[in-house]
Amino acid sequence: MARDEPTVELENLRHQLLELDGRGYKAYKDIQGRYDGSEFTLIIDYVQGDPFASPSKCRVLLPQSVAGFPRSLYRSRSREIALRDYLTRQFSLWCDRISDRRGTGKSGLIATCRMGQEVLERTSAFVNHREVELRFVVGLPARGRRILGRQAAQMLCEDIPQSVDRALYYDNLDAGEIERHVETVEDADWLRDRLSERGLVAFVADRSILPRQSGVDPRPLQDRAVPFESPPSLRVEFDCPNRGKISGMGIPTGVTPIVGGGYHGKSTLLSAIELGIYNRIPGDAREVVVTQPDAVKIRAEDGRQIAGVDISLFINNLPQGRSTTQFSTANASGSTSQAANIVEALEMDAKVLLVDEDTAATNFMIRDRRMQALIAKEKEPITPFIDRVRQLSSYCGISTVLVMGGSGDYFDVADTVIGMEDFRPRELTREAKAIARQYATGRREEGSEDLGEMTERIPLPESLDPSRGKRLVKWQARDVDAIAFGTEDIDLSAVEQLVDVAQLRGIAEAMVYAKQHYIDGRRSLRDIIDAVMDDIETGGLSEIAAFPQGDLAMFRRFELAAAIDRLRTLQITSNPS
Asked: Are residue 26 and residue 125 in the same domain, yes or no?
């Protein structure tokens, strides 16, 4: 929100654009600067080099005395983020209406960041008692590489002021809708903050709709959806600040298998829980499905990079005496990758592990009595998860919620068992324990009770290189699946709690920031992540960006660490240089 450049009138920008009509595209560089409208300021921070390049970056600043948003709407951090989200969505709606193809390449584009069902902290909008700021991009119009000055003047001097008027003035918006948006987010944050004190890892409100339209449409399923209803034995109640009393299923700490037949809603429930780390927009039907913020989805990830991870908790005594206390590979197996994913999550202080058998390595999850009889323990390097999950809970306070439809062996180590039938949950703990007693598996527990110490991993600075060619910093986010970082591609397709490409842009910026400020060959990865997240907490997400940009969204420490861990050039030492 700096005010360094001299300010000229917006009408002067119109005249300047008309004079640029027909000139070469690079002449657009002359319009970078600040322009005063009658009630707001337009700032053009960056001008694209040609109509096919990344669009130009702009901001509008509107004094709060003009915008008129009541302070009650942004009096807390939770409410402020919700209001910023709402304003971004409103501005985006108007941009969609007025954005039009007006020439070559990206000509005519006016856009903010893409928005999903989640309410994320973004760099697209800011609100305080002084002003409202909204960031967006513009595709400055051209035919070929010749400036279309009249179209540009209409975009910047007519269309954008119209969007500001319709989306950033409180009196022109639906006050009730704003209040619902803010209160929905505030209630979810309030609930999430109270899970731990109630001994819960997650809460699923009654009447929630968990199924989605499809794998590519995250809106709630209509017509055929079964509203969620907690079993009486797991029902808990809360008195929220805004919506008042609500009830729903509380999932206690400890080990909780979710069981049931195929297609009866086990994975749907787990999916709602894993995304309960995020707040939701009104109408999502999962607005009051909340999960502890340090819950991490764990899966097998064949072929992933592993750098210097101590996986000896799960895998030991490899053939040829290969050590697993600082294990590295460029092509991990399913079981090895799942072990590394757990250890890396614990390294970042995860307190809840979420596992679905459909995406887990079978030989990592269970080794039954018959296999134990055929293959002696001394010939099997893997200590299966079933023999660690109870220890992680009892000794480390690490809870696990897992979908398990194929192995009743987990009944022996379960604290709570939830059964799904036609998308309706039942508590089956007593029945599962009775079955475990009646049909003893006879399997031997594998692995000692010594869980060992967490080894500090220290990234070597030269192994994180964001440069490409003559560019010292070059990165690109590719949907929610990958980041091109320097000359390397980071595959994040198995990091399932990333939901927005703007999060990947934030992670890429954070990796560059960490490289520039904290990765020095002495600090551990955990300390580096701590420092970066502390800086973001203090200065906001914009703190890590090189210049103002509106397309970054907040991420967690777990996903930032996951991206660094999947960088194939990453090198780790345990001894500071």
From this structure: yes
